[in-house]
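Two proteins follow. First one:
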Amino acid sequence: MIKRLLAGVAAAGVLGGLGFLYYAWYPPIAPIERPNPASFSAEQIERGRIVAAEGDCAECHTRTDNGGGPELAGDYRMDTPFGAIYSSNITPDVETGIGAWSEEAFRRAMHLGVSRKGVHLIPAFPYDHFTKMTDQDISDLYAYIMTRPAVHMSRRPNELPFPLSLRILQAGWKLLYLRPGVYKPDPRHDALWNRGAYLAEGNAHCGACHTPRDLMGAEKKGSAYEGAVVDNWIAPALNEHNPTPTTWTEDELFQYLRFGVAPLHGPAGGPMSPVPHRFLSTVPEEDVHAIAHYFADVDHAAEREKNDKAALARAMEESKTDLIGPNVDPDAKLYQGACAACHYNAAPTPVLGRPDLALNNALWLDEPTNLYQVMLRGLTAEEGQSGVAMPSFYNALSDKDMARIAAYLRRTRTTLPPWTNLEKKAAEVRKTVQPVPVNSSH
């Protein structure tokens, strides 16, 4: 009896293994001659440029360390809990890029996460979002990429330990998390909402940064847009749990995504900065409106913005207190000397270019990470509001100084509990920032 039972278990295991291998196997797709750029129309190439911009393709497929690299040639380092991963060269170079890929092979990679050779791609390439893209958008993107300059450049090998380095294991990940299929419009919403949802959920893959991940590296189900840590910054929640006292309304979202600064929420810094400045500023305005329209619904802006007037008035009043009388609070004096001259605002609303910190995400998050990042890095004239810079305080403020300013702002600008271990956290964030030369300026 026991022998028969063990035999049955073994047989089931063998059949299950064979079934998994059948599921995991994809045939190679034959290489082709690099397509002639003249075979694509100017209209299709321009549509593809828009698709590439809305998907931020160049952001993750262009090396930024070691002096940088050619656009789309890959080798961008992504640090993950599993090890470092380097992006692929997606220029039309035949040997090191995807010049030998047919449109069929390209579409399979986008929709199913499988390379031309039949190898499973690591989901650092967010095919779980790209699977929702239409064939037309993928065809246009293919046309755009195949007409870019071919760059002969290999990427560094991934630094994944065994057995995570085995690509067949990605098939198991897909079995659990990938739901292939093009986005289907929701009949409960209008065309603008559905366009925004299609872009946000698909090509723009907003959840890849703004949704927390589980132990398998997948976006947590039921936690869409709850916020996550990305490149040593906190990508804030995009839903109703965003903690800022004024609502991210459709107009605020549009201003931020199109121009890199929202009047009541401040500028886009860190990993978010290229999104408005390099990409969404170059696409049709109606698409940016669609994304803003979608997320204004996700965060229930229409129901929440009734409290904005009182929150704004309170923030303006708090901003004035820093400049009233001889303040005996030593932390306030430090803040006045380092920050208040540029961040002071008076009623009725903040001046564009003078972000009011009482309204900024950085002070309302669970950790002071983003506040410290901006203090240490500053913002160049190309980030945030165009032409407006913030100097780096990397050399001007010690970890203790930053901790004092953070504590002061948290207790005077928010209604939230104080942050803890502020000086230790300042030191930890400093380690993630390149030292700023003493004589450098923004």
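Second one, unrelated to the first:
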Amino acid sequence: MVDPHPREPGEDASEPVDEYTEEVLSVVERIPPGRVMSYGDIAEYVGRGGPRQVGSVMSRWGGAVPWWRVVRSDGRPAEGHLVRARSHYAAEATPMRPSGDRVDMREARWDGGSGA
């Protein structure tokens, strides 16, 4: 079986991806450009785990999916990734707060529905 989530350099290709990880990564892959979900939103959508479990998945496997579309509940990207995330947000016209360091969650949050 071909792994649908290729690993980034440094990730252990021999480690199997479990069902929860697959579900989380699948949700992240479906977030439309210019939209975001919080770690907690994804856990709620998947129906199990919590923000920390989603964060753990993203920390280990998120390099192969649009990781910048997963943010903290206040709209901040993962620690240490603001500069890289900003370039993606600009390219995708993601709504930002006036400060420019957080996504505007009221405008950019995606609920997992078919409409962007």
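SUMMARY FIELD: Residues 1-10 have pLDDT under 50 and may be disordered. The first helix runs from residue 19 to 30.
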